Amino acid sequence: MSAKPVAGTATADGADVAAEARRRRSFAVISHPDAGKSTLTEALALHAHVINEAGAVHGKGDRAGVVSDWLSMEQDRGISITSAALQFTYGDTVINLLDTPGHADFSEDTYRVLSAVDSAVMLLDSAKGLEPQTLKLFDVCRHRGIPVITFINKWDRPGREALQLCDELTERIGLQPMPLTWPVGISGHLKGVLDVTDGSFVRYAPTAGGARRAEDERLDADAAGAEYGEEWDRAVEETELLTASDGGFDAARFRDGSATPVLFGAAVRNFGVKHLLDLLVSLAPAPEPRPDVDGNPRPLDADFSAFVFKVQTGMDRAHRDQVAFARVCSGVFERGMVVTNATTKKPFATKYAHQVFGSQRSTVETAYPGDVIGLVNASALRVGDTLYTGKPAVRFPGLPSFAPAHFAVARPADLSKAKQFRKGVDQLASEGVIQVLTSDLRGDATPVFAAVGPMQFEVAEHRMAHEFNAPVRLDRLPYSTVRRLGDPAQRALVDSGRNSEVLTRTDGADLALFTDDMSMRILLRTHPDLSLEPLVAEGT
Ligand code: GDP
Fold it and tell me: Quick one: pLDDT band at residue 414, thresholds 50, 70, 90?
């Protein structure tokens, strides 16, 4: 959120809210670690004239440097960064780039961020194509109907063939590629790209270390053909081939999630990045009315409403407070507003609405649909909560919980802390830090923690010890396959298996856990009527 209203003088009346919403693009980059997400983020900001020079991002080690660059950028140029979202303007468009945690681990936080975006950029490494985390995140986008733009990165160095990468999209995820640019010259020997929309050539002019924003140099088709001969002809042929077989670009197919526009580039060289920004502006959806629990879309110019998609504790060590990140869905957010929490019906004062990064804070004054606000002192807020003002009251659907892949029995390390232990476990479950599973067989005193990514266990352990004064011992369980048990009467069947058991989650779902696929298949062979349902991203 910008502390200052972004270009223009928006007031709180309906017409302006709709106009402000229309010029916003809220998206996330989904990628496997090392595909270049931080590099691309920085390059996007660079192209948006946020900064004149990008601090080079080279690997994880330098991440702290990037962060501090951002902080000074924020002070110098009035752009805003939270650990949840980076906001900047590009021409007249307000871009909200929501951060998905980039570490190798996977947590539910990552998924929840995708409930707060209107589109996603799928970033692929040209040498690797679709990688496991890209696939998982893409699955969530598909479930939620989030349209995806594909950016194939690192084209400045040897990688796979463009056609092969496009085929992979069709074959592995059933997504039709609609290339808008096409590389001229094989990867590693990039000459530029063919702009499929007008048949012109954009020259690849690497900028030293990616330090400066490169202006596009364009040639018409004849000039490109004369200069690059066979390489140009091949690019033209390949795009014609693709267009002939797939019917060419179709914006409706992008929006319905069956096709993806594809761009080629090299984020570290700032190549292809302007094209991506232009595409976000021209094609990516602006915020739309969000349906409430009854399926009725809340108009953008209705009174203020937002939903909490992420809660973070202890961002500022000195304060050890809780920050709730909420996406604005309708109306104007103004600092100082008293909003109602639809879950508890209690008021929440936003006097302390801030944009937060680490220990740095600046106050948010105004935010519109699509923007992200960070609410501090938010211990009363939970992931999935709806906040609103005025009438009618509104409640958005809660956020889905995801299929856990890691399980551990939790026990109090100190038996005299049983009460604190129980309180801490309840709190972590309600915040969605981990899922909590129990069964009569195990008893309430030894709940099972379930996580999408193992790092969630570390967070839970740390908070149990430091916040609730109830250190835990976690003993990992060997389960890797999980299904929802459709019929509670079949519980004993699963429990009788040597490598399986049923545990009940706090939301009431019965989860059947198996050590591996084989154990599940063996049980299914003897009990073909066993009702086991896949559990991807429920509630989506
Ligand atoms: P993240 O883990 O997805 O955030 O990836 P990073 O942005 O940290 O990039 C991982 C590595 O790939 C770094 O060493 C980057 O310099 C490098 N990288 C990113 N984009 C490009 C690119 O376009 N070309 C080349 N050759 N390297 C790149």
Answer: very high
